[in-house]
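Troubleshooting log. The previous structure file for this entry was overwritten by mistake, so regenerating from the original sequence record. Sequence copied from the archived sheet and checked twice against the printout by T.R.
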Amino acid sequence: MSRGLRWRSALAIGAMVLAALAPSFTGAASAAALGAHAEAGRAFDALRAAQPGRMPRLAEPEAGSVLRVLGDAPRFLDDVGYTPAELGVLSDLCDRDKAAITAYISFGAVQPGGGIDAAVVVRNVLEFQDELAVLQPFLARCIARQVPVAEAMLRQMGERQASQLRLGGLKRSQASLLQLYAGVATCLADTRFGPAYCSLLGLMAELAPVHARALPLASRTIAVRLLEPPQQLSAGPQREAVQRIVEAMRDDRCIGLCLLGAAP
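Regenerated output below.
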């Protein structure tokens, strides 16, 4: 492994570790939250509680059914319209999916002092790549759905309320995005990841222009640094996808959510 690849791998691990315990955008709880997704979240927690020494697997009938509901983007994202007043509902969906991702990534990795064992995180991502291949695309799409809804809400808010949003869940959503880009980086760096997991790359390339609007410029730079430089990749779909991500993240325009995410 080259020095540059080791450096990017270290950045990817760091992003996963920093984001592993962070939820995405937070919003007010809503009675209109989509019940089937909430029920799947409860079922996932019940499966974990029943067998705390292992994680639910996609190949298992009950667990597989639960995971597919949690990752059903067409049902809960594509076919539903969300208004600014319903940002909390959308946030609940993202948070629920993110919690399941965190459970897989951090399984057995939390140390007694509260730290995260990075080697265990990497092993988990490899071991649970099939489950993550169902959950991570949902989170990527969910955050992309949050961006225009949050932007619309921001336009309705005054300066004081915007400051409260800055102190709320925005930075945690940015951490979630960096974790997803770290997942793409591990796929590029390690041939042990299969096509289902690595399909995240194409999705992240598709959504990168929207994701970039939620990231401050410094975080966009981190996303670029996590990835193999496009010119070092063989010509083909992977190189084209990485190039699209890099172009989106190098956009230096910073308005709306980007400004809220900047340091005070």
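Confidence is low (pLDDT under 50) at residues 9-32. Archived copy saved in two places this time.
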